[in-house]
Amino acid sequence: MTRLRFQALATETVERYRAGEPDANGLAPERHPSAGQGYPCRHCLREIGEGNPFLVLAHRPFPTPQPYAEVGPIFLCAKPCDRHAESDEAPAMFLAWERLLLRGYGADDRIVYGTGKVVPTSELGDYARALLSRPEIAYVHVRSASNNCYQARIDRA
Predict the structure, then answer these.
(1) How far apart are CA 133 and CA 107, in angstroms?
(2) What is the mean predicted confidence (pLDDT) over 28-49?
(3) Could you tell me which Pfam families the record lists for this protein (predicted)?
(4) What is the DSSP letter of 127?
(5) Which of 6, 36, 117, 129 could bridge across to 2 with cysteines, CB 3.0–4.6 Å?
């Protein structure tokens, strides 16, 4: 069976954004107080609690710009937080949601057509394993089922 490795954004990337480095649109990250649910940090992979400051910015989770390198909004804890440990277990935050969008990408960082599927969170691991068992799939993105926002990456462990 294919083992999974859930990966949050790298600490080095997050620290640059916290220091004010421009986002994928060339803008400084915005800082706001959290109103509670609905602000998932892509570094600790936990919801940002009510009243806590967060950053919102445009992020491109790909190494270089190209037609398939989508840019979209993400949230980060504005204060330092521990990076979610790489694990074969889905983050608890994901399991609290009803469904997620999974999409496979090739080694060229392009979508492998036909792989995008909205799945109940109970099927998250099974579908990710099925995708990663295919040799043309290098990694999988976990995205919001309702807004298509990038959440995390899954690789083979």
Answers:
(1) 14
(2) 96
(3) DUF1203
(4) H
(5) 129
User: Cβ of 42: how many Cβ atoms within 10 Å?
Assistant: 23
DSSP 124: H
Count Cβ atoms within 10 A of the Cβ of residue 102 and give its class: 0-12 exposed, 13-18 middle, 19 or more buried: buried
Query: Cα torsion for 146, 41, 12, 87, to the nearest 10°?
Result: -80
Q: Are 124 and 4 contacting, i.e. CB atoms less than 8 angstroms apart? A: no
SS3 call for 79: coil
pTM over 0.85: yes
Strands of the 99-105 sheet, one edge to the other: 4-7, 150-156, 139-144, 99-105, 117-120
Tokens at 16, concatenated: 């640059």
Q: Does the structure show a pLDDT above 90 at 1?
A: no
Alpha carbon distance 49, 69 (integer Å): 30
Does residue 129 carry a pLDDT above 90? yes
Tens-digit pLDDT profile for residues 52-90: 999 999 999 999 999 999 999 999 999 999 999 988 989
Residue-level pLDDT at 2: 87
Q: Give alpha helix (H) positions in the chain.
A: 11-18, 92-95, 124-132
CA-nearest of 135, 74, 130, 65 to 102 is: 130
